[in-house]
Specification:
This protein has 316 residues and is α/β, with parallel strands linked by helices. The chain has one domain: Alpha-Beta Barrel (TIM Barrel), CATH 3.20.20. It is built from twelve helices and eight strands. α5 runs parallel beside α6 and α6 packs parallel to α7. The longest helix is centred in the last third of the chain and has 16 residues. It is globular, with a radius of gyration of 19 Å. The N and C termini lie far apart (70 Å). The N terminus is likely disordered.
C-alpha cells in the first residue's frame, strides 16, 4: 500500500500540520453542489486570472463558486493570498505574506469593468505585518473601481484591524463603500479554539464604529454554525449585532476544508436555518440570509438591493 503525502497542503497550512486528524463528516444531501463546468464559470476564471487577481471563492474553497462565477460574480481577495492569522476554520494559505502587488488596485478596477459588475465584493487576508493592516490599499482599490466602473456598487469584507491605529479603519469608512462587512464568524465562547488571533468584542466594536462615523453606511456581519455553538449563543450574537447597529446578518453552515481543520460538530438542518432567519428578522435586521450554503458574498448583489428597499420601506 502506497501512502501519498500532499506537500502543497503542508506548505499551505504549516501551523496545522501537528494537529491530529479529525474525521471529515459526509455532507448531507442538502449541501451537495455540482462541479463548476459552465461557460460563464470559465469566462470569469479567465478574467480573474488574466488580471493576476486572487479570489476568496478559490482560496477558501467556497461551495458556491460554480453558481456565482457562472453569473460573473466573484469576490476579489486583495493584499495577496497569504494570511498572517491561523484560524481553525479557514482554508486560505497562512504564513508571511509578500509585498503588495502595486498593480492590484488598478487591475481590480479593470476586472470590475470587464465583467460589467453591478455589485462587487472586495475582501482580503489579514495583514498584521502592515502598519495600517492594509487599510490604505482598501481605499486605493475602492477608488480604482469607482474610476473604472462607476456604476458598480462596492461591498467590502475587511479584517479586524486589531492593534492598528484608529485612523486605519477611519480612512476605510471615509471612502464610503456601499456596504461595510466584517464577520464575527462564531460565538464568543468558541473564539479561543476557532478564531484565536481575533477578539469578539473588538470585531463587534469595529462595526459599531462604522455606524457612529457614517450612520447611512450599511453594515453587515456573519457567523458559521455547526461548530458546537448553542441556539441561545447564536441568539445572543444577534442581540449584540443589533446593539452595534448591524443591518445585515448572514448565517451559513461551517464546512471542514481538511482533516487538520476544526471538525464539523453537526450539520444544521434547513428548517433550523429558517428558524434562525425568522428570529433575526424579528430582532430588526434589515436583511437576513440564513441557509446551509449561505456565505458572506453569496447573492450579495440581490441582497444589497433588498436591503436598500427595506431601509426605504422603513423610512416611508
Amino acid at each position: 500500500m502506497v501512502t501519498l503525502i500532499d506537500n502543497s497542503r503542508a506548505l499551505r497550512h504549516p501551523e496545522k500540520q501537528k494537529r491530529p486528524d479529525s474525521e471529515v463528516k459526509r455532507k448531507p444531501d442538502w449541501i451537495r453542489v455540482k462541479a463548476p463546468v459552465s461557460k460563464g464559470y470559465a469566462e470569469t476564471k479567465n478574467i480573474v486570472k488574466s488580471k493576476g487577481l486572487a479570489t476568496v471563492c478559490e482560496e477558501a474553497a467556497c461551495p458556491n463558486i460554480g453558481e456565482c462565477w457562472d453569473k460573473k460574480h466573484a469576490t476579489i481577495m486583495i493584499l495577496g493570498d497569504t494570511c498572517t492569522r491561523a484560524c481553525a476554520f479557514c482554508n486560505v494559505k497562512t504564513g508571511l505574506p509578500g509585498a503588495i502587488d502595486p498593480h492590484e488596485a488598478e487591475n481590480t478596477g479593470k476586472a470590475a469593468a470587464e465583467m460589467g459588475l453591478n455589485h462587487i465584493v472586495i475582501t482580503s487576508v489579514d495583514r498584521d505585518d502592515l502598519d495600517d493592516g492594509g487599510a490604505q490599499h482598501f481605499v486605493d482599490v475602492i477608488e480604482s473601481i469607482r474610476r473604472q466602473s462607476p456604476g458598480t456598487t462596492i461591498e467590502i469584507l475587511t479584517p479586524d484591524f486589531l492593534r492598528k491605529p484608529k485612523e486605519a479603519v477611519e480612512k476605510v469608512i471615509d471612502v464610503k463603500p456601499d456596504v461595510f462587512n466584517h464577520n464575527l464568524e462564531t460565538v464568543p465562547r468558541l473564539y479561543l479554539s476557532i478564531r484565536p488571533g481575533a477578539r469578539y468584542f473588538h470585531s463587534l466594536r469595529l462595526l459599531e464604529k462604522v455606524k457612529e462615523r457614517d450612520p447611512n453606511q450599511f453594515t453587515k456581519s456573519g457567523i458559521m454554525v455547526g461548530l458546537g455553538e448553542t441556539k441561545e449563543e447564536v441568539m445572543q450574537v444577534m442581540d449584540d449585532m443589533r446593539s452595534a447597529g448591524i443591518d445585515f446578518l448572514t448565517i451559513g453552515q461551517y464546512l471542514q476544508p481538511t482533516r487538520k481543520h476544526a471538525p464539523v460538530d453537526r450539520f444544521v438542518t434547513p428548517e433550523e436555518f429558517k428558524t434562525y432567519e425568522s428570529i433575526a428578522r424579528a430582532k430588526g435586521f434589515l436583511m437576513v440570509s440564513a441557509s446551509p450554503l449561505t456565505r458572506s458574498s453569496y447573492h450579495a448583489d440581490a441582497d444589497f438591493a433588498q436591503m436598500k428597499a427595506a431601509r426605504e420601506g422603513r423610512r416611508s
